[in-house]
Here is the input.
Amino acid sequence: MSARADLLPFSSSADGLFYAQHPFRDPNEFAALKAELPDFTTAPHFFRSDRDLHYWDPSFVEMRKSSVWKNFCGSLSTKEFWSPYLEHFSGYFGELKCDPRELQIDSFVEDPIGRRPEATNLYLYPRIDIGYGGVGYGLHNGGRGVHIDRPQRLISIMFYFTGQDGMEGGEFEIYRDPHSLLKRIPLQENLAIISFQTKDAWHAVNPVRSIKYKRVAAYIALSSSQMLWRER
Here is the structure.
């Protein structure tokens, strides 16, 4: 399925840095991806969510042996996956020191806490983690309020495996500035929210107040090995 299928842009001029895509993946592929997700108890980290599963954690490595996850993770290191999103946000490239479409995409290189690699050459690289959020997500973790992602990030994708059922709070929020809520987006299975992480890409999670299961999402990003932003 084309990466641009069923693109749902947000309407306000202030939130052009964000758009939603639903379905993000072919429904059969999505069902297979979800079926292979490890139980949250196998996730050993507590950085972004209540529990986080990093690309090199044993249960993620085991999950990547399935054909559907192997293919999906492999696609994240390709221009084919990222090109539609780079084209979509190309009007903002004046905020960058160079055109990222001209850079090569390497493999997964960040450590679990998101430190950018020390690199003398300039390239792009992907990242993917799985987050399992519970009560308090968005307040005690999940960005801890209104924020912009790490400065090496160019594009961030939130890919949801759960919706709003059984959960109070937990929606994705877009802000005009750190103090002005612009839009609150309820979650859906197979929804992706894609954003270009300029100095104005303010966003947050409406804190989860109650939840029946876990709020499960893949955190996907395209980053640069050196600082590309003119202002961050």
The first strand starts at residue 7 and ends at 9.
